Amino acid sequence: AAEILEIARLGAKKTWIVYKANLNFKLVREYLDELIEKGLLGSNGLVYQTTDQGLEFLQEYKNFKKFRLVVTA
Predict the structure, then answer these.
(1) How crowded is the C-beta side of 31, counted as CA atoms within 13 Å?
(2) Other Cβ atoms closer than 10 A to 38
(3) Long-range contacts of 31-34 (CB under 8 A, 24+ apart)
(4) What pTM did the predictor assign?
(5) pLDDT in tens, 36-60
(6) Residues forming beta bridges with residue 47, ordered by sequence position
(7) How many Cα atoms occupy the beta-carbon half-sphere of 68 within 13 Å?
(8) How many helices (H) and strands (E) does the chain have?
(9) pLDDT in tens, 2-24
């Protein structure tokens, strides 16, 4: 999910998301629906873009990953 939000930061079509995330269309559709439902991703019908809430989620996710690396190292 975080990878899709990162890909869609500046806007991305579904095909680009499939290609960059190395997922199939069925899985991407499920992820996109879930991210939109949670308010992390928006769409104008053609282009998907990470919302402000999605950007906040990405920042927290990156902070968590940094913390996890420090703790396990």
Answers:
(1) 20
(2) 13
(3) 31/1, 31/4, 32/4, 34/1
(4) 0.87
(5) 999 999 999 999 999 999 999 999 9
(6) 13
(7) 6
(8) 4, 3
(9) 999 999 999 999 999 999 999 99
